[in-house]
Amino acid sequence: MNKTGCSVHVIMTKSAQMFITPLTFQTLTQNKVHTEMFERLSAVTVEHISLAKAADAALVAPATANILGKLAHGIADDMLSTVLMALPSQTPLLVAPAMNTAMYEHPATQENLAVLKRRGVHVIAPRESRLACGDVGRGAMAEIETILDEMERAVR
To answer: What pTM was estimated for this model as a whole?
Structure first.
């Protein structure tokens, strides 16, 4: 349990692991960090299904253009996208996009976001700020407080 009283389970893509190690999240959450599609919790547990069923809500933060495209088009080719595809329909899914302004404003990204919104995905809009690439514009992930507020609203 973290200070909000929530048990947080982290799923990291290979790209996410290039920025921060799974050990960091494991230390912060006190839970195993999931990185591989075919790891098993036990001989009778299918991990991506058990994680999806256990979730009160799912949050993708930061949500890249890649994961938004996978979700919009039903692509489940890694642990994260597979867990998200296996979420029960009543489980809230939130995404907090974060990317370069041109990528965020690209018609494909905007179309993917529109598809996800129509399906009931909660999109937490990015903010305008200086981005990792040095540009200033819309694409910075929403503030953590905003994300937590949205998450709390979604699970009520």
So the answer is: 0.84
- Choose the catalytic residue: 132, 133, 136, 155: 133
Q: pLDDT band at 43, cuts 50/70/90?
A: low
- Minimal CA–CA distance to 120: which of 151, 92, 80? 92
- Domains of the chain (ranges; CATH) run 56-155 (3.40.50.1950)
Does 6 qualify as catalytic in the annotation?
no
